[in-house]
Amino acid sequence: MVMLWIGLVQIIGTNATATVDGDSREGRSMAPPAVQLVQAMWTSYLAYIVLESGLQPSGYVKWSRDTMLSQELYLLLGLPYALILAKLLFKYYAWYKATQSLALGRNPRLIVGYMEQLQYGAHHAELASHYVPPPLIVMREGTVLVEKQPHGYSLTGMNNDGLVTIDRVWELDDTVLPEPAAQHKDLCLSFALFKLLRCRFARYTVSEAGFMKVGNFMRHMLLQDSDDERVLGVIAHELSFLHDYYYTSLPVSYSQSFLPMLSVSISLSSIGYCLFLIIFLVGSTRTVLVQGFYTEQISCSPVHCNQPDPTQRGSVYTEVDFGTVWFDAVEVYILVMLVLLVEAREIASYICSSWAKVALICGYTRNTCWQKSPTIRKCVGYVLRTRCNLIEHWVDEMNQCSVLLLHQRRKPVALLRRLLHRPDEKKKVPKAVKTAVVSAVRRFDPRISRLRSNSVTPLQLRVNNNELLWTFQAPKGVADAMLVCHVATSILQVRSRRKNKPLSNHEIAATHISQYCAYLVAYCPELLPDDAAWCRSLYKAVKKDAARVLRDGGGRVSTATPEVEDQQLLKLLSEQSKHRVLKDGAELGRLLAELPAGEEVAWKTLAEFWSDTLVSVAAACDNIDDHAEAVARGGELVTLLWALLAHVGSVDDDTADAAATYGAPDAV
Residue 622: how many CB atoms within 10 A of its CB? Predict the structure, then answer.
């Protein structure tokens, strides 16, 4: 039972270990750990010793086949270690092949050279005028001939029939692709953009990778497509591919065409073994309990303790028993269920993952006979529509924090979050927020919207883009300005609660982005252009002062009417707060509440300010490692905007004026 327990644990650990093959410039390669292979070999040897030998009462090991266990136990103990070794050898082989693959390990160098050829190709002017994406590579890079160049690999000829590019998929008629055809095209576009984003993580600059064609097309999508969720959905899928590549073992399995099927076969063998093990253990445990033998775990034998005194009459041998067989059986049952779960997830990742869908779409694009067969088209469509929540890595949610907790929630989940010092809550990103941030990307100009921690913060609050209501000057930082406007937004939110009417889209966008920016200051300051330690200390100081003010004011702001509640809150923050952020926030909240144009104009002003600020922050913070960590924990809205701005050419670059060049009107 002990050896069986060890084997099951190692199967789970082997599946949980990520294998990553990145370019040397990415610095993210992770080969299968050698310690796992050593452990598997050592425990396999121990299992062999257990099977081939038996412990005699005297304690020595007898090396003979007279004490061998039954054939069932050979199968029971031998199979898990064979599966462990098979999985590890599979991972080593897949990782080695991925290092040699132009589609995986060497892909950034190929994409950079290909984009350079595409940038200065003869058909540049022709493609720039069409409403189709440039011929970005999707799959089958291994079929092309390349030669080494100073900045990467260069294709020896641009006419590579085996290469699947996004324009070939995009130009397919919607009646040819299985429904919904638009989603399948967007998925392939996300995969092509993921390859470009890997170039950013490999520290290639915008000018080196030649992103101008992509920027033109992405800006066309932003300007022409009225579906804002579609644009963000393309980037979300792109970051999902990035998560799979850097934090799972799935991509390296696509280095050879037969490897996914081999991995699924090993997983099916593990599931079959677990089912056999459950049947065997249930039958064995039932037999033991019915017969009443060996129900204990440990027996203290007479040879080692309580030996009788031969000089006394009536002395008898005694045995002491400890434990019960269920202590062993229940643990093994739990481990078997875990193995079944991880193996089922492994199989689902090959069938339902976006990687498999892109590979299937590319195969469907290349084979015209598939397109003509209704049966194949129906089967392909069914596979493309399958989804599995267990392998969804991108979370379409945004964390929320608030400095002014006027009405604290008493639910157990909220209390647990406060106890663990986690964000106040997590909400699904509303459609109003997506519309606001995409509109902000459309009007974003990188030449005038630059945020730097060591310069004047150019954040201004304007009414209808005309009247200057508030400006944030040096030495205030971005986080300082965010918290001031967050306090003002919270005050206006308290004021608007007295009207029993549905929330407007501007109010939804402003309140959600405001609380999300407060979360960034408190929990993810590394994604802001200010110093991370300073941001955390600022948020704690403001939050502590706000809690003191509200506590001294009666625990929470609560009076007979909402009008008096609003006035009491402004008075408390203006007179009793010690931190200047709260004082400035109260003053800005008063100005917004007293706008002659009305409350709806105030919410529109805040929605535009918050969306513009979030986009400016995303463009300014180009710390790739911090964005990679955000992708690892499920994604952040600011990271999604950063990736979108990188493709339209509006992210700050290490190269001088690179972002401004690719964001200039003449480039568009």
Answer: 18
Q: What pLDDT digit, counting tens, does each position of 598-618 carry?
A: 888 899 999 999 999 999 999
Domain of 603? 397-621
First to last CA, the chain: 68
Residue 539 lies in a domain: yes
Contact present, 536 and 525 (Cβ < 8 Å):
yes
Query: Which alpha helices (H) appear in 386-444, and where do they start and end?
Result: 412-419, 431-442
* Contact of 94 with 260, CB cutoff 8 Å: no
Q: Is residue 56 very low, low, confident or very high in pLDDT (cuts 50, 70, 90)?
A: very low
What is the biggest distance separating any 2 CA atoms in the chain, rounded to whole angstroms? 110
Of 120, 107, 138, 124, the residue nearest 204 (C-alpha)? 107
How many domains is the chain built from?
2
Phi, psi of 660 (to 5 degrees): -65, -35
DSSP conformation class of 21: -
3-state SS string for 487-498: HHHHHHHHHHCC
Do 403 and 347 belong together in one domain? no
Same domain, 416 and 540: yes
Residue (of 388, 281, 284, 252) closest to 8 by Cα position: 281
Instruction: Using the structure block, give the residue that is written with the tokens 């990271």.
Output: 639
Same structural domain, 476 and 338: no
Quick one: which H or E segment has residue 216?
Answer: helix 212-224
Q: Is 643 exposed, middle or buried (0-12, 13-18, 19+ CB in 10 A)?
A: buried
N residues, the chain: 668
- 540-552 tens-digit pLDDT: 999 999 888 887 7
Structure tokens of 361?
Answer: 């779409």
Rounded CA separation 455/475 (Å): 8
More confident residue, 59 or 245: 245
Strands of 15-63 (E only): list them: 54-55, 61-62
